[in-house]
Design goal:
Blueprint (H helix, E strand, L loop, with lengths): L1 H23 L3 H21 L3 H26 L3 H6 L1 H25 L4 H8 L8 H9 L4 H22 L11 H5 L3 H4 L12
Helix pairs in contact: 1-2, 2-3
Length: 202
């Protein structure tokens, strides 16, 4: 029990520190690296809770795909840090207001959140030996939290579309592929037939 407690506090401390460094780090590449570190530590917490499937999904999907994708997107954005720092003070009041609103919402939610007797029975009841961790998780997600699951997928879709729009902006001196022009192209626009007489060149 002592080793489990120390491991829990170690993973929690590193995860919280990494999450703070994600927000406070000035270099976006460093922020993505700290995000990967936070994912790894949260996966360790899931292993301690007995949710090995969630830990595996967090490492394989988020660390192996999403975080690496963020890294490439950040490196492709070519962010002007001087311009970014100049606009920081301009948008600081709006950021403070939004932060206060989110903080008030979190306080309201946490203060009104209580465990009912049914929830306590579900948490305290052991998982049957015939049901695996993945089967129990899927039964909860796709029955009780199906709408939340769909909303989360929709938010990820919006984020993916936003990343594509940001990286596909117009740049001077860069030629892009235009599918419509290629499909509308005719053979006579690119081919020219020369009739050459026998024994003579062009």
């Amino acid at each position: 029990m002592i080793i489990q407690g120390l491991t829990f506090y170690m993973f929690s401390l590193v995860a919280i520190t990494s999450a703070l460094l994600v927000v406070t780090s000035r270099n976006p590449v460093h922020s993505v690296l700290f995000l990967i570190l936070a994912f790894f530590n949260v996966a360790g917490l899931f292993v301690l809770l007995g949710a090995e499937f969630l830990a595996m999904i967090l490492v394989v999907v988020y660390v192996g795909a999403v975080a690496v994708l963020f890294m490439f997107v950040v490196m492709m954005l070519d962010i002007n840090f001087v311009e970014l720092r100049q606009g920081f003070l301009q948008y600081l009041p709006y950021g403070i207001v939004i932060g206060l609103v989110l903080l008030i919402e979190l306080v309201i939610v946490m203060s009104g959140w209580q465990l009912s007797s049914e929830t306590l029975n579900v948490i305290a009841s052991p998982i049957p030996e015939t049901k695996t961790n993945t089967h129990a998780l899927g039964a909860i997600i796709y029955t009780d939290y199906i709408y939340s699951f769909q909303v989360a997928g929709f938010i990820l879709l919006i984020a993916m579309i936003g990343a594509i729009v940001l990286t596909h902006r117009k740049r001077p001196g860069v030629r892009k592929q235009k599918i419509a022009n290629q499909l509308a192209r005719k053979p006579e626009d690119s081919l020219k037939i020369h009739k050459v007489q026998s024994g003579k060149g062009i």
